């Protein structure tokens, strides 16, 4: 079964997830979700991320560079992992040529979509404190951290599980999330039903309900955040890896449809 259609988080739920992410005290669990929601790559890219993919420019800004291809290091050598074999690749490469070589700025701040204020996000701190970035521009004491997430990379299933574990610690209601998915997903035939299955993930060890959220939803939420902040679509393509601007229309529509009653009062 392939991944279901990505459904971005509403802005209030997006903020709730980010707050839970910032409060997560397990770096191995947090770093994948940080990259998914903070930079928007596809899940397979997050799972293959290597410390060498992070570089500083001459001004000290940190970038996440998605390579055109890179040896698969998941097994501790260059043997292709199961995901690479599934796509008949002998090494890691992005899903589409449009995704190759793009650079994404790693920032510590974001614009809270509820308040509109610039706030601490912590993505750069998380990356610099987790990965062993071999650069004299890296902060002192963090140049010799992890090369890949959890040692030798992770599976997509693990990444999605980490996202759901963090979401369970947030104020996101699993039942409201389910309603959102049911509203958005259009089931026209059995193929759609199999792909767009909505899953009840039960409760975590603390008794919290687990919302149905995946890395693909994190990617969609990142793209929606770009549209909320009015990034020109042609520039957004350089960050998202889509082939054309028309693909971004659904994210623009989603962002435009988020106007709530209090905001709407401003237009009358």
Task: Please outline what is shown here.
By secondary structure, this protein is mainly alpha-helical.
Name the helix and strand elements from N-terminus to C-terminus, one letter apiece: HHHEEHEEEHHHHHHHH
Principal-axes geometry comes out as globular
Report, as a whole number of angstroms, the end-to-end distance: 48 Å
* Oligomeric state, counting identical vs distinct chains: single chain
Our count of helices gives: 12
* pLDDT averaged over residues: 87
Count of domain modules: 2
- Spans of at least 5 consecutive residues whose pLDDT stays below 50 are 261-268
Specify the biggest β-sheet.
Answer: 3 strands, antiparallel
Classify the secondary structure makeup into a structural class: mainly alpha
Q: Please, could you describe this protein's structure?
A:
The protein has 268 residues and is mostly helical. The protein has two domains: 26-155, no CATH class; 162-259, no CATH class. It is 41% helix and 6% strand. The chain has twelve helices and five strands. The protein has helices spanning 11-23, 27-39, 43-48, 82-86, 123-130, 156-168, 174-184, 190-195, 215-228, 233-240, 249-256, 261-264; strands at residues 54-56, 62-65, 103-105, 109-111, 118-120. The strands form two sheets. The chain has a three-stranded antiparallel beta sheet, with no helix packed on it. Helix 2 packs across helix 5 (123-130), helix 2 packs across helix 9 (215-228) and helix 9 packs across helix 11 (249-256). The chain is globular and about 50 Å long. It starts with 10 loop residues before the first helix and ends with a helix. The model is unreliable at 261-268 (pLDDT under 50).
